[in-house]
Amino acid sequence: MAEKKAFRASVAHCVDDPFNVGGDALEYIEDALLVIENGKVVALGDAQALLAEPRFEQSEVVDYTGHLIVPGFVDSHLHYPQTDVIASHGSQLLEWLEKYTFPAEKCFEDEAHALEGASFFINELLRNGTTSAMIFATVHPQSVDALFAVAEKTNLRIGTGKVMMDRNCPEFLQDTPSQGYEDSQRLIDRWHGVGRLSYAVTPRFAPTSTDEQLQLAGRLFTENPGVYLQSHVAENKAEVAWVADLFPWSRSYLDVYDHYGLLGERAIYGHCIYLNESDLDRMRETGAVAAFCPTSNLFLGSGLFNLSRARELGVRTGLATDVGGGTSFSMLRTADEAYKVAQMSGNPVTPLQLFYEMTLGGASALSMQQHVGNFAVGKEADFVVLDYSATPLLERRISVANSIEEKLFALIVLGDDRCTEATYLMGEAAYNKAG
Ligand code: GUN
Ligand code: ZN
User: Which of helix, strand or coil describes residue 170?
Assistant: First the structure.
């Protein structure tokens, strides 16, 4: 007989998109039972009512009363080899890459270093309640093997890929068009579709790839249906000017990627700050996703992404930490900074819109909404148990909150990894604060 497990707590999840339907997008059950069988949701409802049903009488109940269960967080753009780069002081994007990031990435040619880095990184995601992510590795294929191996063992739902870069970076980090192509194809054959793992074709950004390499990235993307593509676009003004110099034929930075067939529903682009109207149109037409990285954009002084405007124009968006340009693994911290960026750009967002971006919206951005993002029956039971009393200040603020929206906002503004009581992947505990 299949094993049934039930979790009792308050539960909040999005059942729709609050950018379209407002408050109706949220379902909240104060005393809820979340029932899981074979790693998937079989029921969610009022605890007393469900426990009275004969089909759930035998369930083992894990009691998290007083806590809030929400869907596992989705981080749509970050770099696992940059864990040690967080908090590197003093420069904007291009200098930061040269001075801190490229040297740190060199270390991942060593398999033992890559494995240790991957284990720390995955554990950090779980400590922060993140259960799905789209992740950059380094140029070294062994860095991808290491991350996939750890993610497979832990059962996280991730995409990652070997960085492709064949110019304008230190020689020790360069591949060639043919080597980058062949290594990527080998990794796709080995890992794509294994368990919950997906491959992402990963040209770092236009300046570090020749035309030939971008063309081959396009070939990988079209020849392997179902794989993702991830890159960076329009993050920093000096970077945008550099791309205009390197690709004088292009209409815009985004147009370089468009030219090589690198846009599409499974294409995830970090930053997207300096896109013009036609670029945003192309993003909408092709279904490409803008990954909003507020802590990174503030830390590197890159600029302010306008989330509301992107959504109004029909562009798909995700929220992302961009570790290590970003300064935290926590999607709560990230949503807090997203809120402030929106305030500064004069287009405020609501707590529910932020909660959506962290959960169902993020899952939709990564085309994973069939599998994760909320607790619809049949979905994989990835969830976080949040602790309202993680800090004295949070506990105090929560005690005077009058609605679930207020509580979610207090968690976003005041919360961080201390709020993660436990993280579950397909109904199994993957992290437990209590140890
Ligand atoms: N653009 C190209 N590479 C990177 C990177 O590693 N981080 C950020 N934030 N932007 C980039
Ligand atoms: Zn990035």
Answer: coil
Alpha-carbon span 313 to 326, nearest angstrom: 26
- Single out the residue of 52, 47, 60 nearest to residue 2, CA to CA: 60
The answer to whether domain 5-72+374-432 has CATH 1.20.1250.20 is no
pLDDT the model gives residue 435 = 86
pLDDT digits (tens, 9 = 90+) for 204-218: 999 999 999 999 999
- Nearest CA to 169 out of 138, 215, 142 is that of 138
- Mean pLDDT, residues 138-164 taken together: 98
Residue 1 has pLDDT above 80, yes or no: no
Percent of the chain beyond pLDDT 70? Answer: 100
pLDDT in tens, 272-303: 999 999 999 999 999 999 999 999 999 999 99
- Does residue 93 line the site of ligand 1, with CB under 6 A? yes
User: How far, in Å, CA of 424 to CA of 429, rounded?
Assistant: 4
Quick one: which of 9, 147, 153 has its CA closest to 83?
147
Q: How buried is 51 (Cβ within 10 angstroms: 0-12 exposed, 13-18 middle, 19+ buried)?
A: middle
Q: Is 294 in the pocket of ligand 1 (CB under 6 A)?
A: no
Question: Cα(96) to centroid of ligand 1, in Å?
Answer: 9
Q: What is the pLDDT of residues 32-43, one digit of tens each?
A: 999 999 999 999
Candidate CATH numbers 3.20.20.140, 3.30.70.260, 3.40.50.11030, 3.20.20.20; the one for domain 73-329: 3.20.20.140
Domain boundaries, the chain: 5-72+374-432, 73-329
pLDDT average, residue stretch 397-424: 98
Please tell me whether the peptide bond between 270 and the residue prior to it is cis, using omega within 30 degrees of 0: no
Mean of all residue pLDDT scores within the chain:
98
Indicate whether residue 322 lines ligand 1 (CB < 6 A): yes
CB 362 within 8 A of CB 76: yes
- Please give the distance, rounded to the nearest whole angstrom, from the Cα atom of residue 320 to the centre of ligand 2: 9
Whether 5-72+374-432 and 73-329 share one fold: the answer is no
Enter the tokens of residue 301: 């002084």
Q: Mutate which of 101, 135, 237, 296 to test ligand 1's pocket (most atoms within 8 Å of Cβ)? A: 101
Confidence of residue 365 (pLDDT cuts 50, 70, 90): very high
Edge-first strand order for the sheet with 420-425 is 40-46, 26-37, 4-14, 60-71, 383-386, 420-425, 428-432
> What is the number of the ligand 1 atom nearest to the C-alpha of 322?
9
Nearest to 318 by CA among 279, 244, 373, 263: 373
Distance CA 61, CA 7 (A): 6
